[in-house]
Amino acid sequence: MSDHIEFIQKYLSPIFKDEGFQGNISNLFFNKILSLLRSKITHDLPKVMNHPEVYSHYVRELIQFDNKMLESFAFEDLFISDLILKSEEKFEKWIKVELDFALGRLDTLASSPDSWKIRFQQSIENDKIPVIADLFVNLLKAITEYYRDILFINVKKDIACRLQKPIIFSFIEKLNIQMDKSMNDKLKNFCMVCNSARFVFDEIESWKDDLLFLSIDENDFIFNDCLSLLNSTLNQVALAIVDLQLESYKSFIRPFYRKRRLSFNEIDSQQSIADILLEIQKFLDSVGQFVEFADFKSISRSLVSGIENDIIEFAINPFHLNFEEAAALNKIIVEPLTSLFANYSSRYLNKLNAIIQLLMLLPSDPIIKEIQNSIDENNSSELFKLTGLTVDVAKQYIQKRKN
């Protein structure tokens, strides 16, 4: 067509116009050639479809051909890729071929131990992306660019739903399987799963502003369900990481809670409070080394929240702590924890510190009066908002003081 277009426009077009032809002679030529080509494709397809690799390449060639016709000649009267893309049987066969290739590639990646290592560990400092996540994102990008050139919007949407989404769902399943594996270094394994989920999540999230996906559906991002599942995986692996340290903390600290007067010096233990604090610090430093900053913040906050709730539930609520006991709890556990977590965020342990301060201040008449007023008026004062206490819980604390 490129070889003939100049000859057609320069020599044939004037002749046709002289003979009264009103149409575009170039488009007439293109239509005739494409009709021949469509007949050739229709004849070849039954054999081509029996060879998956050939069929995959064949469809790509047809898509590229249609785009070339549009870009080079602005010709859109007749296409050839629709012979497959708009035939349910042939389109379904092609989707299956591409999906099988992609899932096979993903299975190979997931089964390789090297895939769960950092991709550019030797060449890029602080890189935290596992090989599997990097290669998977490249696969997604390749598929996206592949069908970006397709001229039919409804076909693009079908490919996103029937090809890309199943691949993403399969990847998420691989992450969950990897998370459940018994590993010697559980923390590092969890962190690699976390980083993989984050990397893929961020990539798909970036597609929201892509004109391709806006053209498919400008009102509802087609991959929202994938983002939701990836976010769920991120939450699950964050909790799994936190549980590694939280369980160790609980097993060590709860025997201390059971002492009525919190006389820690009386407990014969090989591990001191300083030891558990050092263990927590090493844990947080390791997590910070392995995971991205956004996920580190989430994980560290969850750990603090777990420790905070554990102290409130098992050290404060079950016991009628008096002023001295509250002060001891504050000095021996809460203050060191607050100091430790201050290295990571100033907002940590706010609720616990407020409750401790409340317990220590309760003998003070003005504080009791403020709480009593809030109880009588059945509303929350600033003190309530600070501590997160409810009126009912405040009543219990006041009653304990009176008793």
UniProtKB/TrEMBL annotation:
<dbReference type="InterPro" id="IPR007528">
    <property type="entry name" value="RINT1_Tip20"/>
</dbReference>
<dbReference type="GO" id="GO:0006890">
    <property type="term" value="P:retrograde vesicle-mediated transport, Golgi to endoplasmic reticulum"/>
</dbReference>
<dbReference type="GO" id="GO:0070939">
    <property type="term" value="C:Dsl1/NZR complex"/>
</dbReference>
<dbReference type="Pfam" id="PF04437">
    <property type="entry name" value="RINT1_TIP1"/>
</dbReference>
<dbReference type="GO" id="GO:0060628">
    <property type="term" value="P:regulation of ER to Golgi vesicle-mediated transport"/>
</dbReference>
<protein>
    <submittedName>
        <fullName>RINT-1/TIP-1 domain-containing protein</fullName>
    </submittedName>
</protein>
<dbReference type="GO" id="GO:0006888">
    <property type="term" value="P:endoplasmic reticulum to Golgi vesicle-mediated transport"/>
</dbReference>
